[in-house]
Structures are given as C-alpha cells and as structure tokens.
Amino acid sequence: MFKLFNNKRLFILLITLVMFIVLMGFSLGSRKSLTWPENFLRDTTGFVQSLFYKPAGYVAGLFQDIANLHDLAEENERLKLMVAQYTREKAQYNFIKSQNESLQKDLNFREAQKNLYDFELHIAQVISLTTEPSNNSIVLDLGSKDGIKPNMSVISTEGLVGVISQVSNFTSTVKLMTMMDVKDPNSQPAIAATVQDKEDNSFGMIESYDAQTGMLQMNKIPVGDPIAVGDTVISSGIGGMYPRGLTIGKVVDVKVGDYGYTSTATIDPLADFQDWKELFVVFTEERVE
Amino acid sequence: MRMRRSVLVLVLFLLFILQGTILPWLMPDSWQMRIIPNLVFIVLLFVTVYHHRHTALVLGLAFGMLHDIIFYGRILGAHSFAMGLSAYLIGLIFQLPRAPLPLMMSVVLLGSLLQDSILFAIYSVFNLTQVPYNWALLNHMLPTMLFHFAIGLILYIPVRRQLELLKKETRKEENA
After folding, report:
1. Does the distance separating the beta carbons of A24 and B126 come in below 8 Å?
2. 64-123 in B: which are within 8 Å (CB) of A?
3. Which of A13, A24, A186 is most worth mutating to test chain B (most B CB atoms within 10 A of its CB)?
C-alpha cells in the first residue's frame, strides 16, 4: 500500500508535520520570556540589521530633504509660533500641576494613585520590519537590558502604533495595531478610549482593525455619548495597560450597533504604519506585566 | 564545495537582512502594505530547480525559522513550514538542471503564489486572519508575485551562474 512513499520517508514526513503543529500551537500561547536560542538569534541578527537600516534611512531622507527645502522656512515660522504658545501654556501647566499635587495631598491619595498617570518616553530606533498583513511587526533596538517589558505601548510622533510583543536582551518586537483582532486570543487587549475635550462623558473600547478598509473599530459606546465625526480619540487609561492620553485616531463614522444598546465608531488611525524612523516606548510605573 | 555552499548561505542571509531593512526604504509608500518582498525565497526557488530540492528544503526551513523568530508577533514556524514545503514541492515537479528562462519565471510566479497561499492557510487554521482569500489574493499576493517576477529576472543570470559553479564543485568532490 505504501509503494508510493517508502515507509521511512513517510514516517519522517509525518513526524515533521506533527512537530510543526506542536511548535505553532506552543508559540501561539502567551509567553513571558524567550528561550536562549531565540534570544541569541534575535540579538545577533538585530545587530546586523541595525547596521543597514539607519544608513539607508539617512540616504532616503537626504533626497526627501532636498525636495522639501522650500517648505522649511514656512515650517520654521509655524514652529516658532507654536513654541511661543507652548511656553505660555507651560507656565499655566506648571501652575495647575502644583495645585493638583497639593490637592492630591490634601485628599490623601495613595502612592499608587499618584503614579497612575506618570509616564516617560524612551526613544527607540527601528532596525527592521516586515509588512506582511497577517504578521505585521517591527523590530526595535531596545531590549530587556534597557528595561523593556512585554505589553508596553509604542507610539510615534503621530499616535499610538502598537504594543511590545516579545523582548530579547537587546531587541524587541512591536505588534502593530493593524493586528488587533477580537477573535485572536493573544491579540493585544482592547484599548479603553475616550474623546479629546469630552474626556468625562465619552467612553468606548477599540477592539479590532479591519485590514480591508484600514480602519479601527471602537465598540461598546453607550447610547447618548457625545462622540461625533471628526473628534480625536485618545486612550483613557482605564484598565491599566495603555497609559492615559495617547492619541489614536480620528472618528470618521458613528453608527448605532446591532441591538441598539451601544454604538460603534469607525476610527482612522493617525499613525500611518509606514516609513518608520524613531518610535517611543512608553514606560509606566510598574503597571505592565 | 564547502566554500561555495557557505557563500550561498551568506548571500541568503544578506538578502534576508536587505529585505527587512533597505527594501522598505526603496518601496513607494503606497506599495508598502501590498508587496511583501521575500528575496530569500526567490533564490531558494532557483536552488530547488537548478540544484537540488533537499538543499532547498533545509535552507527554506532554516531561513523561514529565522524570519519567524526575528519578526515574532504571533506564532513560530509558519514561515519555516511554508517556505520549506513550497520550495520542496516546486522542486519535486520542476527540478530540471537545464530549465530555460521562461520556465524558471513561471516557477517564480507559481512558487510565490504557493508560498503565500500556504501562509494564508496556516493563519486561517489558527484563526489569526479574518479576511477572505480572494481579497488577500488581489490585495497582496498578486502584486507580490509580480514583484518577485521582476526580482527573479534581475537575479536570473548571477544566481544561475553561481549554482552551476556549485554543481560543478559538488560533482568534482563526489568523483574524488
């Protein structure tokens, strides 16, 4: 019966198939840390990749800069205006901040509550990327030696980009928001979100990304929520994994959901998921695991 | 033989680095999400046709695993499986040391479609992708096929020459 395949080869074939399914199943579950062969491979390859990615970016950037030369003066003007405004608001901010702190002290806030909204940004260089739709990820040049932990948020200058999925000693992988999916058990958790300037009245959960339209889906918005088309959506910090105040996207559409109890909003992400240079990793006070 | 073979592995590694670092800069923005370059796999298709399918199988498994580990977002082993299997299957059908250019180019088209389809199948089995197959086909598989076709044309002469040298060396070693 097994004339077609000889027995030994068929045996090896089946064993390999089973091994692969076991490997895929095993790696599908959530993992806290990587094994040493993975660490070694990622760190050595990451080093070689970092030698290539940045110089290529400089060369590509040079041509872009020459093309953009005449826009520079205009941009400079605009930035000066913004700086002036910023210094004015900074004084205001410092005043409100000190007031807020003294009020918190009066109200006996716990230490944990005080640290709730503290976060700092660490700059990270992209060293390589893959644009494959089902596994869209970026490799950064910061690793566990720099204090990176899985599930930290990663932002670009435009907005939220994704979360750290795997960390080795000197590199880490970012899982982009484009891979958010309610049906995937290991997808990054949903983002508790709210709307800028309506922070107290608005709430929703950003749960999935639609690859076909390139839009994020915000669900569980209560009826009567003031969310409207054109609003900027930011993370609300509820639930703990994503720090408060990261910009996510703009609302392009609001619809009443299937059963009429909640609404659903479609959100155009602000980060454009291409031409990566520097990204920022958000370090919070011991709130990620 | 040792030398040629390690040159092959080094070139594949270099291509792997290039496709993750330099290619995204050369690609126009609007194509970035639609073309998923896999230079390593194109060279593997050449290896499987002009050299031997077992070499291609082993290299495919190894470099697929490298890709899986470096860009570890969801599961390990998907690329390893897809690249190894499709390079082997293509070799099983098309292993012809004298294959002319048109045949080789159709192999590149077919192989790239096969590999992307296997990947899509793996992700669907584990419920990691929700898009329908024909959308994925039009959105990224076909553009990727065409891109691989163009790269295949560029690589045809240098890669084939190297593989012929590799073959000659292997034969010499076997005779000795």
Report:
1. yes
2. 66-67, 69-78, 80-81, 119-120, 122-123
3. A24
Q: Which residues contact A155 (CB under 8 A, 6 or more apart)?
A: A121, A161, A246, A271, A279, A280, A282
B18 touches chain A (CB under 8 A): yes
Helix (H) or strand (E) holding B69: helix B53-70
> Which CATH number applies to A117-287: 2.40.160.210, 3.40.50.410, 1.10.10.10, 2.40.10.350?
2.40.10.350
Instruction: Assess if residue B176 is contained within a domain.
Output: no
> Residue B166: pLDDT above 80?
yes
What's the pLDDT band for B121 if we cut at 50, 70, 90? very high
Q: Yes or no: say if A168 and A42 are a contact pair by the CB < 8 Å rule.
A: yes
Residue count of chain A: 289
Whether ipTM tops 0.85, in short, is no
Residues in chain B, how many?
A: 176
Are residues A42 and B70, on separate chains, in Cβ contact within 8 Å?
yes
The Cα–Cα gap between B23 and B134 comes to: 26
Over residues A171-193, the mean pLDDT reads 82
Q: How far is A186 from chain B (nearest CA, A)?
A: 8
Tell me the per-residue pLDDT of A72-128, one tens digit each, with 9 for 90 and over.
888 888 888 888 888 888 888 888 888 888 887 777 766 665 566 677 888 888 888
Q: What is the pLDDT of residue B83?
A: 93
Share of chain A above pLDDT 70, in %: 92
pTM, whole model, 2 decimals?
0.82
Contact B128 A173 (CB under 8 A): no
